[in-house]
């Protein structure tokens, strides 16, 4: 078992770890729904698999193939979709704003969008600001 406190992640099969994740995520969302009209959950961000200083070199745009990102997220997406049983949950997917159908770029010619392989930096986060504002504005108007 790994983890802290009374909730430990079983060091076992990937199916059991996924079930553990789903149970804890559902528990967390249900708790948040007690305090909010709507709980917005962001679907997983694309993961990058190299060092940030290698994201853009010599003007060459690099990235992770979209098919690899989709394969990585495929096991998690059904877990998130089951959260929609709770009418107070809204899912938001950042992929359309960070990826094309072919690639999820690490950045552009002005620099990296990521501070490390799994976290957006300020430039990457700015790409999501307006779409997220639009989502939140739509939720407050309905």
Any chance you could write out the topology, listing elements then pairs?
Blueprint: E1 2-4, E2 7-9, H1 14-33, E3 39-42, E4 56-57, E5 60-61, E6 63-65, H2 66-74, H3 77-82, E7 89-92, H4 95-98, E8 103-105, E9 107-108, E10 111-112, E11 114-116, E12 119-120, H5 122-141
Parallel strand pairs: 3-7
Antiparallel strand pairs: 1-2, 4-5, 6-8, 9-10, 11-12
Describe this structure in words.
The chain is an alpha+beta fold. The chain has one domain (2-141). Helix content is 42%, strand content 23%. It has helices at 14-33, 66-74, 77-82, 95-98, 122-141; strands at residues 2-4, 7-9, 39-42, 56-57, 60-61, 63-65, 89-92, 103-105, 107-108, 111-112, 114-116, 119-120. A two-stranded antiparallel sheet has the order 1-2. The protein has a two-stranded parallel sheet with strand order 3-7. Strands 4-5 form a two-stranded antiparallel ribbon. The longest helix is centred in the N-terminal third of the chain and has 20 residues, at 14-33. The protein is globular. 10% of the residues are buried.
């Amino acid at each position: 078992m790994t983890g802290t406190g009374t909730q430990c992640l079983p060091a076992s099969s990937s199916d059991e770890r996924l079930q553990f994740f789903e149970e804890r995520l559902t528990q967390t969302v249900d708790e948040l729904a007690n305090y909010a009209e709507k709980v917005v959950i962001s679907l997983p961000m694309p993961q990058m698999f190299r060092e940030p200083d290698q994201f853009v070199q010599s003007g060459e745009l690099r990235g992770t193939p979209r098919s690899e990102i989709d394969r990585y997220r495929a096991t998690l997406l059904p877990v998130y979709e089951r959260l929609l049983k709770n009418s107070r949950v809204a899912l938001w997917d950042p992929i359309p704003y960070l990826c094309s159908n072919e690639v999820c770029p690490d950045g552009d010619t002005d620099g990296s969008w990521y501070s490390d392989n799994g976290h957006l930096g300020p430039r990457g986060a700015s790409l999501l600001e307006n779409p997220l504002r639009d989502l939140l504005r739509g939720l407050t108007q309905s």
